[in-house]
Design brief:
Structural class: alpha+beta
Bound molecules: fe (ii) ion, zinc ion
CATH superfamily of the largest domain: Clavaminate synthase-like
Number of domains: 2
Shape: elongated
Strand content: 25-35%
Helix content: 25-40%
């Protein structure tokens, strides 16, 4: 990290310059509120002790200077603060610093079949380095394939609980995906399933899905994966208005059977406060009637159908046939999944699945990265 070389007080802001020419401005209230001293943050756990409301409205620095490599500030409320060069850049509000803090997803399509983000369960469960490598690739692409997972009943939960915390739902801690009589969900038939994200009728929607293949000798049943983030960016480029419409208007989703009645509303494309795509919610099976003002309905359908067409382009589809012992892990709100029909009279196809939350996986990867797991 480059050193700090200058600090100056301007109107409402402290301007900081690094030796390599970078510059950033920090508003007084932000800087004072983020003081890192032991009075303002608990030294053991780093949690804030300072109540933002206790700061005077007109908080301002009396002095600001570079001292011993840090930005040192003396405040009008009598307090003194010090901020490191690296910490300042890591939190600076400039476009470059903010862009550097953003995870950039790597888009993929059919071609990724030759270079799958992939891990080996025997290795992952033995070596934290192998687990970290696998999870880092999973995070970049929004999915991963794990080989050599023992084909035991409920093993999918064991895998889930290594990476995070399995979320129990009305389907239980895990669920069987196979063809059954009188199914409460089309997943439990042998029909083809168009690509979708799971369970947008839940609030919150599951962030991660694991699917573990136990048996697959039925003809057909190939799995299909599509990068929803890439398709959304394609839509943004080709039809910016349609993109904005899908990001603005929430769609209704619904599920009901004998034991549960679930419904939620969520936009097909979710964008963050800077406009970046952060989640896709797309599920034809559980879509409920769109509840929108009259004049928005037809334009919404045009945008929705255009997005659905992009999702179906062959160059966007990764096709793979899961073999027993393979486990597919998907960021549910990015990697859409589907399958081809299969023939349950000529063989078996049996998967077990479970859901996790995204924060658990992110935490696991962060712990592995700092060598604490
Ligand atoms: Fe599904
Ligand atoms: Zn302080």
């Amino acid at each position: 990290m480059s050193k700090l070389c200058d600090a100056a007080i301007g109107p409402g802001r402290v301007s900081v310059t690094w030796a390599d020419g970078r510059r950033a401005d920090f508003p007084f209230i932000w800087l004072r509120d983020n003081c890192l001293c032991a009075e303002c943050r608990h030294p053991a756990n780093g949690q804030r002790l300072l109540d933002t409301l206790d700061l005077p409205d007109d908080i301002a620095p009396c002095r600001a200077a570079v001292e011993a490599g840090d930005l040192a500030v003396g405040w009008s409320d009598g307090h003194g603060s010090a901020y490191g060069a690296e910490w300042l850049w890591d939190h600076a509000p400039t476009p470059e610093a903010r862009a550097a803090r953003r995870a950039t997803p790597r888009f993929w399509g059919a071609g990724i079949a030759n270079d799958l983000p992939r891990g080996d369960w025997e290795e992952i469960s033995r070596s934290p380095a192998a687990e970290r490598r696998y999870l880092a690739r999973y995070r970049e692409f929004g999915f991963g394939l794990i080989d050599k997972v023992p084909t035991r009943d409920g093993m999918v939960v064991e895998v889930g609980n290594r990476f995070g915390h399995v979320r129990v739902t009305n389907y239980g801690a895990f669920f069987d995906v196979r063809s059954v009589p009188d199914p409460n969900n089309l997943a439990y038939t042998a029909v083809a399933l168009g690509v979708h994200t799971d369970n947008p009728y839940r609030d919150p929607e599951p962030g991660v899905q694991l699917l573990h293949c136990l048996e697959s000798d039925a003809p057909g049943g190939e799995s299909i994966l599509v990068d929803g983030f890439r398709a959304a960016e394609d839509l943004r480029r080709s039809e910016p208005e349609g993109f904005a419409r899908l990001a603005r208007r929430r769609q209704s989703f619904r599920f009901r059977d004998r034991e549960a009645e679930l419904s939620a509303r969520t936009p097909v494309i979710e964008i963050d406060d800077d406009g970046a795509v952060m989640a896709i919610h797309f599920n034809n099976r559980s879509a409920a009637p769109l509840d929108a003002p009259l004049e928005e309905i037809e334009p919404w359908y045009r945008a929705y159908r255009q997005f659905a067409r992009l999702l179906r382009r062959p160059e966007n589809e990764l096709r793979l046939r899961l073999a027993p012992g393979q486990l597919l892990m998907m960021q549910n709100d990015r990697a859409l999944h589907g399958r081809e029909a299969f023939d349950p009279n000529l063989g078996r196809r049996h998967l077990q699945g479970c859901y996790l939350d995204k924060d658990g996986i992110a935490s696991r990867l962060a712990l592995l990265s700092r060598g604490a797991a």
